[in-house]
Write a structure and sequence with these properties.
heterodimer; A: 313 residues; alpha+beta; 8-stranded mixed beta sheet; 6-stranded mixed beta sheet; 10 helices; B: 370 residues; alpha/beta; 7-stranded mixed beta sheet; 16 helices; 7 strands
């Protein structure tokens, strides 16, 4: 891998737009290199803001993904304009409304990683590290996982990933991508109130999802994005209006089954997937966590990270 | 041989798959392009399998190893998935006692043909007697398969003209089964006598399924490839054909003569001739020269016709370029598109069909989903 360590923020927006338009721009997230092409100025602006602290490369010899966000070839190029996502020239998705182009890049990259990388077990969960150990936050949509993940990342936890928890088959460690955090609707206001000193991507309105935007990951998380961490806690968050914070132990078997059902590549990995999920659950303390206030949640997680992890086998 | 391949990316991919032992020291930039083309051509599984067998595999750069390893994970998984799916199909169809011939990918897996190695599969294709099409369809529906939303035009297209009923998707598993009653549409110019295929079919021990006999499997693969109107998987299909030929040609002295005779009996000499011609030109496959001469005479192709077919197919069989195809590939693919349709139906029907297809394409992509 070429070892240029320049950061996207070092480039002027105009320079970024140029190389992005020519398809010569590549972004490094964790150990993955994504070559991106787009002539959309809003996509360039979004990358400039959300990936300011990430390393970039120009014309790398090798990229793990070659993606493009561009205009469709048909009539939708000109009326009720749309954006499409391409990977190696193929279109895995239907187009989206034009103003969602920057978000489309994020979702497209999520899909590319989840669909193509089978050197890891990829779990649909957030993961963060503190004091050398990682917590995994799996949760169905609407459970407040992303809000909690954002809050933790802004209060001393190192962000590994907000959506794709990548578990290594040999060491059962969690790998980092430190990519922008996807937030929706009320979560956006909550986090802006929680931490006014944050940097955001463009906000769009989608008829299905509502308000959608991305939060720039903390610089420290990005600086250490090549450091994996050992998971020691698995916490299923559940936002409940008015609830007092309550951390209750959760069965390992139940947690294992959740991972089997909520990993992108559990099935393709076959026996390997089974082994990874089993070892992961074996080395972690598993909890359910109900809460209503972020400050309560942070206290509980602080406590969690300070106790020596109890490892059952 | 490789001089006949008009496209650098295609030539490179073929060379890499056939000579994996030479990939130990190629620069990273070369891998970047090679892996992309292999993915587009649906040949990364085959490439991965060949490279993983080399001693230098563990010394390859990590991102390259990761992609090859990941491709291998997917092909193993899909192979297991096909096996699983055919068990469900067997459970649904065993009670009606119909002879079921597996075609293409599913056949390669269950009959353990080398063509199955490193291949990514889509639908399961089966061949059943036309008289029992309705009972087969009914049995599948009872067990959870359903035809998708096909409009009345498509219904007629399939049931009246084509050699298959509309694809059926399973409501829980989301898998697709294509039920055929012949290997070519009823509207084609040369419809094979499907009774002959059934008569010579062979059982797969331990299952209720049958497969086409070796020469028929090769002929079917050739027929399918050279009647296709969409050739994104053309090179992949050519490699499959090549695997089948290599596997069977060693099995008997009369193999080649049997193959020729059978193609004449089924009225499919041209597809077989083209198959042997292009596996030789693109993949450097060994075919006895007298067989080629024999077939060429049978096809009665003029020099001009042959030159046109060569220009079209040598370009159209090239893999898609990840950064966009060049004009010759696009034109060649379009020519194949027309030829595929022309072979499938008479001219009057064809023009109506194509007008409708293009009209619909202008206005597609009005829905969205991820």
């Amino acid at each position: 891998m070429s070892s240029s360590r320049h950061q996207v923020g070092d480039l002027s927006l105009a320079a970024l737009e140029d190389i992005l338009g020519e398809g010569r721009f590549a972004l490094q997230t964790g150990n993955l290199i994504s070559r991106i092409k787009s002539s959309f100025s809003d996509v360039a602006r979004s990358i400039h803001v959300l990936y300011a602290n990430h390393p970039y490369l120009i014309d790398p010899d090798f990229a793990d993904f070659h993606v493009e966000v561009g205009q469709p070839q048909n009539l939708r190029r000109w009326f009720k304009r749309q954006a499409e996502f391409l990977i190696d020239g193929e279109r895995p998705f239907e187009p989206l409304p034009r103003d969602q182009a920057p978000a489309f890049l994020e979702w497209g990259l999520n899909w590319a990683i989840a669909a193509s990388c089978h050197q890891w077990l990829t779990i649909h969960a957030a993961s963060l590290e503190r004091n050398g150990f990682a917590v995994i936050l799996p949760a169905p949509p609407g459970s407040g996982k992303s809000t909690l993940c954002a809050a933790l990342a802004l209060r001393g936890w190192r962000l590994l990933s907000d959506e794709l928890t990548l578990i290594d088959p040999e060491l059962i460690s969690a790998h980092a991508l430190a990519r922008p955090i996807n937030l929706k609707n009320a979560s956006i206001d909550l986090i802006q109130e929680f931490e006014p000193n944050t940097v955001w991507g463009p906000e769009v309105y989608d008829t299905a999802k509502g308000r959608v935007t991305h939060l720039c990951p903390p610089a420290e998380s990005v600086a250490r994005m090549q450091e994996p961490a050992q998971p020691r806690w698995i916490v299923f968050p559940r936002y409940e209006s008015g609830a007092k914070p309550l951390l209750t132990p959760r069965g390992k078997a139940q947690t294992f089954i959740h991972f089997a059902q909520n990993s992108f590549n559990y099935s393709p990995l076959g026996r390997t997937g089974f082994d990874i999920a089993g070892q992961l659950v074996g080395q972690c303390a598993c909890y359910d966590f109900a809460y209503s206030k972020l400050s309560d949640a942070l206290e509980v997680f602080d406590w969690l990270s300070s106790t020596p992890p109890h490892i059952e086998r | 041989m490789t001089k006949m391949i008009p496209d650098m990316a295609g030539r490179d991919l073929v060379w890499a798959i056939k000579n994996p032992e030479l990939l130990g020291n190629i620069p990273l930039k070369h891998w970047d392009g090679l892996l992309r083309v292999a993915k587009r051509a649906n040949l990364i599984g085959r490439l991965s399998k060949n490279v993983k067998q080399q001693k230098f595999f563990d010394e390859l750069p990590e991102p390259v190893r990761n992609q090859l390893y990941s491709a291998g994970v997917l092909t193993s998984h899909q192979r297991a998935a096909i096996d699983w799916e055919t068990r469900h199909i067997a459970r649904a169809l065993e009670p009606i006692g119909v002879p079921i011939i597996l075609l293409k990918g599913a056949a390669y897996v269950l009959a353990n043909r080398t063509a199955a190695d490193g291949r990514l599969f889509g639908d399961v294709d089966i061949l059943v007697p036309r008289a029992q099409l309705n009972s087969v369809e009914a049995a599948l529906m009872v067990h959870g398969w359903a035809s998708g939303q096909v409009d009345s035009y498509d219904e007629r297209y399939y049931r009246q003209w084509m050699h298959e009923i509309p694809p059926m998707t399973h409501c829980e598993r989301g898998t697709v089964i294509d039920v055929h009653h012949n290997i070519l549409p009823s509207t084609s110019r040369t419809v094979p006598n499907v009774e002959l295929l059934h008569e010579s079919s062979q059982p797969i021990p331990g299952t209720i399924f049958r497969v086409l006999c070796p020469v028929d499997m090769i002929i079917h693969s050739a027929v399918h490839l050279f009647h296709e109107s969409e050739l994104q998987n053309g090179l992949r299909d050519l490699f499959d054909l090549d695997s089948l030929i290599k596997e069977f040609s060693g099995q008997g002295a009369s193999f080649w003569q049997d193959l020729v005779d059978r193609s004449i009996l089924l009225g499919q000499v041209l597809p077989l001739y083209l198959a042997l011609r292009y596996t030789k030109a693109i993949l450097a496959s060994e075919t006895p020269e007298q067989i080629n001469v024999l077939l060429e005479r049978e096809t009665r192709l003029g020099q001009l016709e042959l030159a046109v077919l060569d220009t079209v197919y040598l370009h159209a069989l090239m893999p898609d370029r990840p950064d966009g195809n060049d004009i010759s590939t696009l034109l060649a693919r379009f020519a194949v598109f027309l030829r595929g349709h022309y072979l499938r139906m008479p001219l009057g029907l064809l023009s109506m069909h194509l007008i409708r297809k293009f009209f619909l394409r202008l206005f597609r992509n009005t829905s969205r989903s991820i």
